Amino acid sequence: MNQQPGAKRRVIDRARAEADAARLSGMNLIGGHLVQGGEHGLFDVFHPADGRRIAQMPKSGTAEVLAAVAAARSAFGTWSRVPARERGRLLAIAADRIEAELEAISELQTLETGHAIATQSRGDVATAIDMIRMFAGVSGELKGTTVPDAANVLHFTTCEPLGVIAAILPWNGPLFSFSSKIAPALVAGNTIVVKTAETAPLAVLRCAEIIQKLLPEGAINILAGQGRHVGEPLCTHPDVAKVTFTGSVPVGRTIMGYVADKLIPVTLELGGKNPNIVMEDADLSIAAPGVVAGMRFARQGQSCIAGARIILHEAIYDEVIEHAVVAMNAMKVGDPFDEATDIGAIISARQIESVRGFIRSVGAYPQARILCGGADFSQPGLENGHFLRPTLIDGVPEDADICTQEIFGPVAVAMKVRSFEEAIRLANNSDYGLAATLWTRNIGRAMQFVSQIEAGFVQVNQYAGPKANVNYGGWKSSGIGKEYTLEAMRNHFTRSKTALINHAI
Ligand code: NAD
After folding, report:
1. What is the whole-number distance in angstroms between the Cα of residue 141 and the centre of ligand 1?
2. Whether residue 448 is found in the same domain as residue 486
3. Which CATH number characterizes residue 461's domain?
4. Is residue 10 over pLDDT 70?
5. What is residue 494's three-state secondary structure?
6. pTM, rounded to two decimals
7. 306, 310, 317, 369: which is closest to 343 by C-alpha?
8. What is the pLDDT of residues 144-198, one digit of tens each?
9. Cα(353) to centroid(ligand 1), Å
10. Residue 250 alpha carbon to ligand 1 centre in Å
11. Atom of ligand 1 nearest to the CA of 197
12. pLDDT tens digit string along 235-286?
């Protein structure tokens, strides 16, 4: 589907990505250098499309956390004194250098995540570059204020870095999460220790290697490893001044627990079970494709903002379902390195088994229909990969697990409503509050939706992904704090100081 008619079909040679993975295998980035790691040994990283091992990464532990934080602490003294606009200039150069390697980094991300290179990986890398450029460009906005006071008092505030930041990343959009944390942290004058996700450590390490060359040694440090080995010593370390985490709700709660004693700020970007509502007056020429695009099938549905609860007015239900089924059946699942592939592989055997479990669970409901998908996919050479056809299900009660829990796979549930009020009630009947979309031509209804929906990232007549300069973050169990904007950098990666200077002496 992503291929232009008549365009030449190209299968990418993935040898370069494999060579990069082999070079980075076993490495952490600490104090400006790639260093062999693995206090607790090594773990395997696989290509999700064929199950082949591509690297063995360090199971880092407390000693490696201590070394990385010490390096970051030492670099903070230098980096925080570099003028803000100079920090921005260096990050802008880093973005250029990453862009010069966009294709190689996209291939590396495809190798570790199984995301299709054409529909997902290249776009992910481009969005990450844009994020770094955006923050680099606003470096001069790290300003304080002056406040009227007594005639002899100069009353002002400053905007200062926090110190060493800890960032913990998920696997589904590793470079995007990475860029949205390291760019504001570094531009604001902080230094950073990043823990990569177990299944996707490589493209992040490659980008950090590029960035580090421009910064004082130790300004950016990357640790591979498992949550339990790295998370606690990193978050509880006395020199870590803030934690920014993207991942699941249970781990988000654990991280809040780690930092409770230290009383340091945390930003949590957590899961979602997002409603995508189409009303009877919607322009179906955009809404029907929007329902499919909103599911983020090109990322195998492994997206926090996936519109996995499709809420349709009864008057347009059949038409939208029909469109969605045709579009989903036309999507090409397969080799993520093939330019013609729309949907690549699910990240791991564990994840695909969890998704299959949700699909199986609808067997308990007599009215449930699997409208398309629901089955594995395989092709010669990829028998050990984790592929599922995009799946649409209806006829399931709203309190079923498949309607309430985040599946994080290519599975959407459609639900029928008779009114706008019923759609809003259903949409808000969730512990999550990340993203929500409404399709309507009625501007009054659109405004009502914005005011009544309990979610942090809300759209009408479009289903766009998060990007630089758009304030983003969840409500309810979907998280705490915002990312991706100047305000987010100021609010979450700096602290202000209030000064009152009596100059009548
Ligand atoms: P996860 O919570 O299992 O893991 C995320 C990271 O936390 C990994 O690096 C993991 O090693 C680490 N971790 C695990 N246990 C830890 C511990 N005790 N201490 C410290 N770190 C620990 O999540 P995941 O499976 O990698 O990612 C999927 C989840 O992330 C989904 O819920 C998805 O919605 C969410 N997500 C949210 C956003 C957003 O912007 N809101 C974006 C992407 C993903």
Report:
1. 31
2. no
3. 3.40.309.10
4. no
5. strand
6. 0.96
7. 306
8. 999 999 999 999 999 999 999 999 999 999 999 999 999 999 999 999 999 999 9
9. 18
10. 9
11. 9
12. 999 999 999 999 999 999 999 999 999 999 999 999 999 999 999 999 999 9
Given a cut of 50, is residue 485 above it in pLDDT?
yes
State how far the alpha carbon of 325 is from the alpha carbons of 277, 313, 319, 502, in Å: 17, 17, 10, 71
Confidence of residue 387 (pLDDT cuts 50, 70, 90): very high
Main-chain dihedrals φ then ψ at residue 59, nearest 5 degrees: -85, 85
Distance (Å) from CA 298 to ligand 1 centroid? 20
Check whether residue 490 and residue 434 sit in a common domain: no
Could you tell me if 48 and 187 lie in one domain? yes
Q: What is the C-alpha separation between 368 and 320, in angstroms, rounded?
A: 18
Hey, which residues are catalytic here? 269, 304
Task: Give the type of residue at 346.
Answer: I
The residues, any chain, with a CB within 8 Å of residue 156's CB and separated by 6 or more, are: 144, 145, 146, 147, 498, 499
Q: Does residue 2 surpass a pLDDT of 60?
A: no
Find the domain containing 406 and state its range.
275-473
Q: Show the ligand 1 pocket: residues with CB < 6 angstroms.
A: 168-173, 195, 197-198, 226-228, 231, 246-248, 251, 254-255, 269-272, 304, 406, 408, 434, 474, 479
The answer, yes or no, to whether residue 5 has pLDDT greater than 70, is no
User: Are residues 326 and 457 part of one domain?
Assistant: yes
Nearest CA to ligand 1 atom 23: 247
7 falls within a domain: no
Alpha carbon dihedral 422, 374, 287, 315, in 10-degree steps, equals -50
The residues near 428 (Cβ < 8 Å, ≥ 6 apart) are 452, 453, 454
Whether residue 286 sits in one domain with residue 334:
yes
What's the CATH number where 209 sits?
A: 3.40.605.10
* 9 in any annotated domain: no
* Domain count within the chain: 2
Give the pLDDT score at 375. 92
**Counting Cβ atoms within 10 Å, is residue 461 exposed (0-12), middle (13-18) or buried (19+)?**
middle
User: In terms of domains, do 223 and 370 share one?
Assistant: no
